[in-house]
Amino acid sequence: MRILIFLTCFWTGITSTFAQNPAWQEFQTPVKASLRGLSPVSDLVCWASGSGGTWLKTTDGGKSWDHGVIAGLDTVDFRSIHAVDEKVAVVASAGQPAVIYRTEDGGTSWTKVHQEGKEAFFDAITFIDKKKGFVLGDPVDGKWMILETSDGGKSWKSLPHLPKADDGEAAFAASSSSLIAHKDQLILGTGGRTSNLHIYSLAKSEWTKIPVPLMIQGKSSQGIFALTHFKNQLILAGGDYANPEIREGNLLIWSGREFIAPNQTTKGYRSGVTLLKKNGLLIAVGPDGSDFSVDGGRNWQNFSSVGFHAVKTTDDQKSIWASGSQGRIGRLID
User: For residues 217 and 240, what is the distance between their CA atoms, to the nearest angstrom?
Assistant: First the structure.
């Protein structure tokens, strides 16, 4: 009983402390695009991309922004971006044309490095290190499209072993977070008619499919939208973007053996989730606000009504940035 009381007080104390502290510092950027592509490098350097072929970058922590249209493609939505530093970045489009572009001069010029056919639709980009990366695309001919690069995004080819997709299974390009790389694994979270985790062992070149029965699914607007790791567990965030107020089945924890529903979930549908390792702070974002958890996703508390599409932690694990509609960018103050 004493242990239970202690743990309850401990959680209450942490919740109270963090409830007063987390907040978004919002930046006035010079664009009005919907920014679903986000790649923060450090406290000072952050890239974003989105509708109207827009790219956006700060190198001084948000005080000023460089921006432009990628290769004149003002009708293309670049929902996925990965930045190496303030000079090098790779972007992938959602929709047609299905293209990947790369810059080495901080966005001044962009070079097309890959293009797929009319059936392709890119959903996410993730990198293991500066050289090895992957781009996820919607299923083609019954298999998920996954491209890989070994030269920092200069060239791309199909992953030799591709997982099968269920009929009606879908991935979401809401925040470029449905595919993540972790150590020697690729992890894909899906939705639509069925929701699954597809886990790929890079060492064994083998895929494992794990059904996710507790996640809301069955419609094209439902399922897993974002993934992040917490220690040896996986946090799955999503819901139903057509009915964002639904809370049931919008967030789960995968322990490696079972799926665990949180005691207290997020306010509604969440398109992005990330972890700040130094203090175990999890942040989830969606169109109606942001939530945090400090106990591995077991309990979530809403701390902001500001809506964002994507949320990512910097490569150095020192800060969290978010991006949203109307060119909005935020950085977490904790």
Answer: 8
Give the pLDDT confidence of 164-179 residue by residue, as tens digits: 999 999 999 999 999 9
Domains of the chain: 2-333 (2.130.10.10)
Residue 284's CB is within 10 A of a number of other CB atoms, namely 30
Rounded distance between C-alpha atoms, residue 286 and residue 238, angstroms: 9
pTM of the complete model? 0.93
More confident residue, 8 or 285: 285
pLDDT value, residue 72: 94
C-alpha to C-alpha distance for 79 and 323, rounded to whole angstroms? 11
Calculate Rg over the CA atoms of the chain: 19
pLDDT in tens, 24-73: 999 989 999 999 999 999 999 999 999 999 999 999 999 999 999 999 99
Predicted confidence at residue 190, as pLDDT, reads 98
Span 243-253, pLDDT tens digits:
999 999 999 99
SS3 of the chain: the string is: CHHHHHHHHHHHHHHHHHHHCCEEEEECCCCCCCEEEEEECCCCCEEEEEHHHEEEEECCCCCCCEEEEHHHCCCCEEEEEEECCCCCEEEEEECCCCEEEEECCCCCCCEEEEECCCCCCEEEEEECCCCCEEEEEEEECCEEEEEEECCCCCCCEECCCCCECCCCEECCCCCCECEEEECCEEEEECEECCCEEEEEECCCCEEEEEECCCCCCCCCCEEEEEEEEECCEEEEEEEECCCCCCCCCCEEEECCCCEECCCECCCCCCCEEEEECCCCEEEEEECCEEEEECCCCCECEEEECCCCCEEEECCCCCCEEEECHHHCEEEEEC
